[in-house]
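User: Teach me something about this protein's shape.
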Amino acid sequence: MITLLGAQHVPDSRIRAGLLASISLLRQKQANNGAIPNNVDCATLKPNFRAYADAGLWWIIGSSILAPDPEAAARVLHWYECQDVDQTGIISMQESADWQDLFRTRGKGLYLNCLYVIALRASGKFERADAVSERINRFFWYRGDGDMLRHIRHTFSTETPEQQDSLGRRRWLPVKKHLVTERYYLPYLGFRAAGEWFDSLGNLLAILAGVADEEQTSEILDFIERQRMDSAPMRSLTPVVQPGDSDWCDYYGMLNVPNQYHNGGVWPFIGGFYVAALVRAGRLTQASRALDNLTVLNRAGEFNEWHHGETLAPMGVMDQAWSAGMYLFALECVSRSEVPERFFGIRRGRAV
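Assistant: First, the predicted structure itself:
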């Protein structure tokens, strides 16, 4: 479905047939509860739901562009309504259940909920999309002030705006250790905990979904430039998670070591979203420069899955469709000097 964003603009009947076949097969394997599998095995046609969290949202977005199916989309959205487990208006997920399927994003994910906004708009659910957008800003936007209470207080049994509970007892609060003075959207909100790294894809989708206002958009894009995350667009996060950090997991093994894979690796498909976000913000000169950098990266890696975060050596698998598709999407955005509103539901710089 990510591939589709750019591939839809290619006048090739074989590509279009492949995209439509993907939409159709995923719909055929939709679970009784409405969930869409994250993939279907080509040999056995067995659906896989392990990394389930974002699959249905991407299916809604992709199908709305090429093959709208309101009935199937309604079943998907009903399933997502059930993922609002604590009635905060924000959907939750299990650990490592979205595109970062080997990384410790858990609870209320930023990327997942920004994608939810886009999928709701793709389904014509504009009021619900606006409500989710408001809650993302309420819960996820970190103001650079060290105050973590506002991000986790909804996880206490009795929610109050003060550091004491209803009986006057002082609450335990996490201490902000990284990016203390920066302003950005936190990557996830867990039980009395919050992720601290800067999630590139989540923050870029906040811009593209219209969740971030003009000031927040500038803060995010300035942060990316200041941290030099854009030198080869786009590193998945910063700072990288080190062994011993609270978000480090033993199952990261040899793949998610610092500056590799989900832990700070450079992902060309995210680079495509970065170009689009710059266009969305009206930073057309920067967008053109980022597209040039992405061109160099994709030539060197032959549309690789991901590159090392420091050396930029290609370390994934070549010929990745989503890397190529998002490059085409970035080209489309730069050539138009605007983001195609058909996907993001935005028109002339504002959400609709």
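Now, about its shape. The longest strand covers residues 188-190. The domain at 2-351 is CATH 1.50.10.10 (Glycosyltransferase). If you'd like, I can walk through any region in more detail.
User: That's plenty for now, thanks!
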